[in-house]
Structures are given as structure tokens and as C-alpha cells.
Amino acid sequence: MAAENLAVSRETFDNVILPVYAPAQFVPVKGKGSRVWDQQGKEYIDFSGGIAVTALGHCHPALVETLKSQGETLWHTSNVFTNEPALRLASKLIAATFAERVFFGNSGAEANEAAFKLARYYACKKHSPFKSKIIAFHNAFHGRTLFTVSVGGQPKYSDGFGPKPADIVHVPFNDLAAVKAVIDDHTCAIVVEPIQGEGGVMPATPEFMQGLRALCDQHNALLVLDEVQSGMGRSGKLFAYEHYGFKPDIITTAKALGGGFPVSAMLTTHEIASVMAPGVHGTTYGGNPLACAIAETALDIINTPEVLNGVDARREQFVSALQKINEQFDIFSEIRGKGLLLGAVLNAQHASKARDILNASAAEGLMVLTAGSDVIRFVPSLVIEPTDIAEGMARFARAIAKVLN
Ligand SMILES: *Cc1c(COP(=O)(O)O)cnc(C)c1O
């Protein structure tokens, strides 16, 4: 028997959900491609992609097909038994990257938690238990577990939860001299997002990234790239590290990996993975056949020239539409980011209006995101139709006109 259909609305949220979010006033009930419909049947264009997750749009036919076929085959085995989809997905991720070993989790935070633990463990086993310092960056975001908020560079997310994991140092992003000043032979890892997402859509410069690689090599530290948001095609390459011409030691990926189904992965080399042994780390759900089957289909589609080469063309359409809006309203100081991770930075006169613009966009039938108080963030489907971009941008212009009047 189907579950009884209890009537729920946006008001229900305030009564039943832990008050850690402030969701929009409408409740989406259905999605197709880059269009979404709410409880009242109103249609939205989705430039938010479920925060860079639904990289193939909503209910992509191939993902739905895999969800159904794997759903009728095998959902879960636990890590006591391995499974074919996990082994295939790991093999394909290895074939597509620098990596030789994969660990699966269910969220970005879990992949990062595994990465940070591995970096510490590797240093402890190969060098010394005192080689535990992690260098990370102001405004970085790595997830919400206590270790990941502590490595993240936003104290508002880590204060108030008791003692934090120690030996984590934060320095300014894109400031190689600041890293040089704190790195030493007790450093086990530098942790960095190639493009800071939550922190304001801020791309690392190639010189900065290459400098971090060199500093890690000098001090036997691992370079850990958090590609939870920048990975899986978002930057126009499968992973953003490919833009810099080097190999990282560990990368993490999540958001778009399952195209909307929760799954994450940490990728590393055989040499680094070799310090691990059964029982040292683990998860019950991580690498379950249902999630891995869906991610395998997502990877098969995203890791093709058709999809990856389409990212920059779509970015151009976004940038030129935003520039036109800016000519009309003089509201942005800069359009930044990489690929389809775009940030429109509000100029000083309009700083702190990001939330108002998000709300006005929703009223016009458009889903956008913010990244801080003065950046509008766009992380649409990588295969969004050009007509959806055009229509969404028309709605965005109307929203801005309303906010400014
Ligand atoms: C979203 C995000 C995370 C956290 O992922 P969750 O799935 O929410 O745990 C970590 N790092 C980056 C760069 C992210 O954008």
C-alpha cells in the first residue's frame, strides 16, 4: 500500500525540520531537465542545479533508467560484501584521472573527512606522528562534520561545538607567500578548493595552485583538492586539477557525481592508499550498488567531449547575458568563476542585496543561488538548453529591475 498522502506545505517546514535552513517560500514537487514546478504548478528555470548537483538536469532519462533497473536488482550489500557497480565506477574513475584507489562515501563532507584522515594517517605511518599540520584557507568550505568545518575557513560554522581538532592553520586564499610562511616539515597536507564555491565563487590562480604543488613536494606534504563542487565537469574538464598541468595526491568529489543521488568519492594513489588496512576507516552505505550504478551512468555521460566541450559555450551565453544586464543596471563589479560555476559579484552600491535578488528571481520563476552576501551564484545543469538560459536570463533581468526599483 502506498504511504498515506499527508498534506504538507512550506509552513510545515517551520514545525518539523531542525531550523538550520531558510528555504524559499515555494516547495518544488517536480523537475524535468532545467525546469521545475512547485506545489501550485508554477514553473521555474533552474540555474541552481540543487547546488551544483543535478549536472544532467532533473530526471535525466538515462539516470532514471539506471535507478529503475538497479532498483529492481540490488540496492545495498554493506562493505562486508563488494558489488559490481562500485567496482565498475571505481575502475572508470581511475581510468579518467590520476588516481589508482577509490573510497566511496555518501556526501562531500564524508569524502573530505576520509581525505583528511588519510593525509594524517599517511604522515603518521610514513614520517612521524607529529607531522599533523593541515594548511587550509580563509573562506574555504569542506562540509559540516566537526573535522571538515574545522578545516573550512569560516569560524561561524565551527564555533560553539566544543574543542576543535587541533593543528589546522588558515591563511589567505591565492596568497602563496602566506602558505610559505606557515608550511614546514610537520605539515601533512594542504587542502584547497580549485574554485572556492561557498566562499564566493573564487578561482585559484594557476600560479597559486602550481606553487602549492611545489611547496607540498618540498615538505613531503600531500596536496588535497576538494573538488566536491568543481569536479565532474563543472569547470569544463572532468576535474579542475586538469587545468593546472600537475597531479594532486588526493581529490574528493561528490555533488554532481550521482547527478542528484547521494554518493561521494575520495581518489588517491596506490602509494598513499597503501598505509590503510581493513578496519582503519569505513562506512556502512558508502559504495552501495544503487548509488554507484547511478554515478556510473552520470560519469559515462559527463565524461564525453559532447558534454565537457559544451560547458564553455554555455558559460559564454551566461556571461554575455550578464554583461548585457550589467550595461542596463550597472549592478555587477565582476563576473568570475570557471565553466558553469559562475559568480556575479554585486558592486559596492548594491552589496548585500544578493538575498533580495534570489527572492525576486524566485518570484519571476527562476532558481539562483548566492555565495555570501554579495555574490549571485549560477551552477546550472551542464546540459542546460540554450533556450532555457535565454528565458532564465530574461526572468533574471526582470527580478533585478524589481529589486532596484
Ligand atoms: C558542498 C561542498 C562540500 C560538502 O558536501 P556535502 O555533500 O554537503 O557534505 C564540501 N566541499 C565543497 C567544496 C562543497 O562545495
Description of the structure:
By secondary structure, this protein is α/β, with parallel strands linked by helices. The chain is built from 14 helices and 17 strands. A seven-stranded mixed β-sheet has the order 4-12-11-10-7-5-6, sandwiched between helices. A hairpin with a 4-residue loop joins β2 and β3. α4 runs parallel beside α11. The longest helix has 25 residues. It starts with 9 loop residues before the first helix and ends with a helix. The mean pLDDT is 97. It binds pyridoxal-5'-phosphate (PLP). The site of pyridoxal-5'-phosphate has 15 residues, from α5.
Describe the SSE topology.
Layout: H1 10-16, E1 28-32, E2 35-38, E3 43-46, H2 49-52, H3 61-71, H4 84-96, E4 101-105, H5 108-126, E5 133-137, H6 146-151, H7 155-158, E6 168-171, H8 176-182, E7 187-192, E8 195-196, E9 202-203, H9 206-218, E10 222-226, E11 250-253, E12 264-268, H10 270-273, H11 289-302, H12 305-329, E13 332-338, E14 341-346, H13 354-364, E15 366-367, E16 369-370, E17 375-378, H14 386-404
Parallel strand pairs: 3-15, 5-6, 5-7, 7-10, 10-11
Antiparallel strand pairs: 1-2, 2-3, 4-12, 8-9, 11-12, 13-14, 14-17, 16-17
Helix pairs in contact: 3-11, 4-11, 12-14, 13-14
Bound molecules: pyridoxal-5'-phosphate.
Pyridoxal-5'-phosphate (PLP) binds next to helix 5.
